[in-house]
Design goal:
Layout lengths: L5 H15 L2 E10 L14 E9 L4 H20 L14 H7 L3 H11 L8 H6 L2
Antiparallel strand pairs: 1-2
Helix pairs in contact: 1-2
Length: 130
C-alpha cells in the first residue's frame, strides 16, 4: 500500500490478527519499487509491503477460517489503496481481484486472444476468468 496509509493498514492488521487469534509467526515489511514490466504488477507506485508468515490449521474448518481472514485482510489492503500478491490459495473473490488488479479484464482478454483454445489453463484462470 502507499506509505501514507501504512500506519492505518498495520493498525487494521493488528486488530484482525488479535480478534481472530491468528498464529502469526513473522511479518516482514518491504519497500517495493514501481513495476511496469509485468502486466499484472502489484506495484504501480512506490509502496510498502507486508509479508505474513502464518501457521494455518489444515483441517476443513481451519482452512475456511484462513480463507475468511485472507479476504478480510485483502479488503483492508484495498481500503488503504494497496493491492495484494496473488497467492497460491485462491481465497479472494472476483471483486477483490478486480479491486487490487483493475487491469485483470484486459489480462483475460489478452489471454483469450493469444490462447483462444485455452491450452494454458489453471485453477486461477478457471476461477476468475469465467
Amino acid at each position: 500500500m502507499p506509505s501514507r496509509n501504512f500506519v492505518a493498514f498495520t493498525d487494521g492488521l493488528r486488530e484482525i490478527v488479535e480478534r481472530r487469534g491468528i498464529n502469526l509467526l513473522d511479518a516482514t515489511v518491504r519497500y517495493v519499487e514501481p513495476n511496469s514490466d509485468a502486466f499484472l504488477n502489484y506495484s504501480q507506485q512506490q509502496m510498502m509491503s507486508v509479508v505474513l508468515y502464518l501457521n494455518v490449521k489444515t483441517s476443513a474448518p481451519g482452512l475456511a477460517d484462513s480463507a475468511s481472514a485472507t479476504r478480510e485482510t485483502i479488503d483492508l489492503v484495498l481500503r488503504n489503496g494497496g493491492t495484494f500478491y496473488l497467492p497460491y490459495v485462491l481465497a479472494y473473490d472476483k471483486a477483490e481481484l478486480a479491486g487490487g488488479y483493475p487491469m485483470i479484464g484486459a489480462f483475460f482478454s489478452a489471454k483469450k486472444k493469444y490462447d483462444p483454445r485455452e491450452i494454458f489453463y489453471n485453477d486461477f484462470y478457471a476461477r476468475y476468468a469465467h
